[in-house]
Amino acid sequence: MTRPARMAVLGALAALALMPQTASAQGLPPDPDAVLVEELVVTAREAGPAWWRVSRGESVVHVLGVPSVFPKGGGWDPAGVERRLRGANQVILPFNSASVNLLSAPGAAVSLLRLRRSDPYEDGLPADLRARFVAAREAAGQPASRYRTGNGMAAALLLISDYRDAARLTAADPAKTIGRMAAAQGVRVEARSYDAAALLRSVVRTPQAAQQACLIEALAAVEAGPGQVQDAARAWAWGQVRPALDGERAYERCLAAAPGAAELDERVKADQARAIAQALNTPGHSVAVVPLRPLLSQGGVLDRLRSQGYEIRTPGDR
């Protein structure tokens, strides 16, 4: 695996290890976010993306649920964000980034080396999967040499990353745009990074059956094209929550298979809920941005806050 490819795999892990997960497929584990809290899945009354409201006394956090992947340059009305940013104490962005220092984490460097091999990944595939893989990476505009790995999870993550780049899909927005809007208004931004070294070690240890299932998920995503993501993004922009939850999430199904993924998912949700609760200790209002499925699932961010006694209002409330 070349250095750019290794960095792309690391970037894929960094951007996507913390995103919501969907229904299990053969060889993949159960989905922790499959079951939604139905009373929270409500179409917005006001124009634009849907907002939830968490409050305690006079303190309020306005929570925007966002898609896990979004078309680059996708249109949506930022008026609701701009209005809520005025006078806000802070903006809490999704806790979905990661970092790794290969000098201070030698185990991560070893993991990267174990993902690498001299010949392309497709050379070791059966004929039918090889044909599909070649067609998919060609659709993403990439040569066989980019996927020099023997690890199906790494190859699948890299393929989806390349496909999304080619299809102009991003996991950074709308949160990145909201962060820029907050900075322009002088509102403090809170975000969080997690150590990616353990994620690299997890990819190496992923069982072969899950690697195979992940590869099939990746191929299906590329073969389906960006239409599902585009449809979900349009629904989100109009405040239609249920169809907005239907965007393609092959990354999440893959990463759910990595050892330790469930523990990391639990940690991220707890941290996001805690950040919102802490914001409610300050009089006034704040803004939080959370991926839709972790926001609305049973055991998700809003479910946790509700169980802690905070008042939750949905986008359908007046």
Secondary structure topology:
Blueprint: H1 3-16, E1 51-56, E2 59-66, E3 70-71, H2 79-85, E4 90-92, E5 97-99, H3 106-115, H4 127-139, H5 152-166, E6 169-170, H6 175-184, E7 188-190, E8 193-195, H7 197-205, H8 208-224, H9 227-237, H10 241-244, H11 250-255, H12 261-279, E9 285-291, H13 292-296, H14 301-307, E10 311-313
Parallel strand pairs: 2-9, 4-7, 4-9, 5-8
Antiparallel strand pairs: 1-2, 1-10, 3-6
Helix pairs in contact: 1-5, 3-7, 4-8, 5-8, 12-14
What do these coordinates show?
With 318 residues, the protein is of the alpha/beta class. The protein has one domain (3-313). Helices cover 46% and strands 13% of the residues. The protein has 14 helices and 10 strands. The chain has helices at residues 3-16, 79-85, 106-115, 127-139, 152-166, 175-184, 197-205, 208-224, 227-237, 241-244, 250-255, 261-279, 292-296, 301-307, and strands at residues 51-56, 59-66, 70-71, 90-92, 97-99, 169-170, 188-190, 193-195, 285-291, 311-313. The strands form 3 sheets. It has a 6-stranded mixed sheet, sandwiched between helices. Strands 3-6 form a two-stranded antiparallel sheet. A two-stranded parallel sheet has the order 5-8. Helix 1 (3-16) packs across helix 5, helix 5 runs parallel beside helix 8 (208-224) and helix 12 (261-279) packs across helix 14. The N and C termini lie far apart (54 Å). 49% of the residues are buried. Residues 12-24 and 101-106 have low confidence and may be disordered.
